[in-house]
Design a protein that fits this description.
By secondary structure, the chain is an alpha/beta fold. The chain is 44% helix and 15% strand.
Length: 379
């Protein structure tokens, strides 16, 4: 495993971090984590050099922090930098800051969080935190040792990102970044801006919710085939992110041993600036093919769920994107009509708009659900 400097902090972290948002589950229930499998995956990764473990208050409907706490028993806690996040959308008073941090410490079975983030900041949440005197709390938690480093994760426009960066002497930040999203949200400009401030930079969604790792559409597969050096789609995607020297570590939501092993092997050879000009040109061509096919830029983060009307929003978008990318409109229409209940289908959207307020990608969800319904009906 390779390690990189974590910005201005006096330690290094593994180039691959373990993201605990997509752990193996039981009965297709996101809250029911398969503890035996999940703990085995996390501990295997740590045993083989992974030193950054990332979770958050809402992951797996509140179960992720509890699982991570169990996984880090038996001496594993001392081997890693543990990251979790303050649920900023739930903080309405100053007292909420301490309430949630102390709850998280209990769930994680630890007396401190190494890497504490203000979760999913956008302009509205940032302004609210400032009103609630967030940095008085941060100073207190740093002083009493409950947190060691302070950062934030981000989902908004570049100008807001820069405003937040300039608003405090942060240790690190976490941004969405992959070869399809290099000009999205913080993007490359934000990545470089944070690096110049000396911040450690953690990358989420390097595989865009796993979509860049799955069997690619024909046009993309033809582009990948042009390379003399053969790699899997996941390897290409991770190598692209880690090619950037500003990146400290990437988070991958791994839920199988095969994924863990492959991603660790990739991280072990992914040095900064190690991709050739031909490699980068190839990836740009692949990006062009994907952009022509993707209908909805959803990463299946599930922040929009649960829908008050019962619509399974990420599943509907996945069906539309798969139909477009793989020319499988008839097959995906069958799945839409046979595997989803009426309440779960896009047609049941009541257009309340709650989902759009929660979406970190700021997608026009109501509009896209209409597109799903039309595509599935006409297949």
């Amino acid at each position: 495993m390779k390690y990189r400097e974590f910005g201005k902090c006096d330690f290094k972290v593994s180039t691959l971090g373990f993201g605990c948002m997509r752990l193996p589950i039981i009965n297709n229930d996101d809250k029911q984590i398969d503890e035996e499998k999940a703990i085995a995956l996390i501990r295997y990764a740590i045993d083989n050099g992974v030193t950054y473990i990332d979770t958050a208050y809402p992951y797996h409907k509140g179960s992720s922090e509890i699982l991570v706490g169990k996984a880090l028993k038996d001496g594993y806690r001392e081997k890693v930098k543990l990251a979790t996040k303050l649920p900023t959308w739930l903080t309405h008073t100053y007292e909420d800051f301490d309430k949630y941090l102390d709850e998280q410490l209990g769930k994680l079975q630890t007396d401190h969080i190494d890497m504490y983030l203000l979760h999913a900041l956008d302009k509205e949440r940032w302004d609210n935190l400032l009103k609630l005197d967030i940095f008085k709390f941060v100073k207190s938690a740093l002083c009493d040792g409950r947190i060691k480093q302070i950062g934030f994760s981000f989902h908004d426009k570049l100008d807001t990102f820069k405003e937040i960066i300039d608003g405090y002497d942060w240790d690190f930040c976490q941004i969405q970044y992959n070869f399809l999203d290099n000009n999205y949200q913080a993007g490359t400009e934000g990545l470089e801006y944070a690096a110049k401030k000396g911040m450690g930079i953690v990358i989420m969604e390097p595989l865009k919710g796993g979509r860049l790792a799955k069997n690619p559409p024909i046009s993309v597969k033809e582009e990948w085939a042009k390379s003399e050096v053969k790699k899997t789609p996941a390897q290409w995607a991770l190598r692209w992110v880690l090619n950037h020297p500003e990146v400290s570590t990437i988070l991958s939501g791994m839920n199988s041993m095969e994924q863990v092993i492959e991603n660790m092997q990739t991280a072990d050879v992914a040095l900064p600036n190690s991709l050739s000009v031909k490699d980068l040109e190839l990836i740009d061509n692949v990006k062009g093919q994907y952009n022509e096919l993707i209908k909805v830029q959803c990463t299946a983060c599930n922040y929009c769920m649960p829908c008050p009307a019962g619509v399974d929003i990420p599943k509907n978008f996945a069906l539309l994107n798969d139909a477009s990318m793989y020319d499988e409109y008839e097959d995906q229409s069958k799945t839409y009509n046979n595997d989803l209940t009426l309440k779960q289908r896009a047609v049941s959207c009541v257009e309340c708009g709650k989902c759009e307020k929660l979406c970190p990608q700021h997608l026009e969800i109501r509009k896209h659900l209409k597109e799903v319904n039309l595509a599935m009906k006409n297949a």
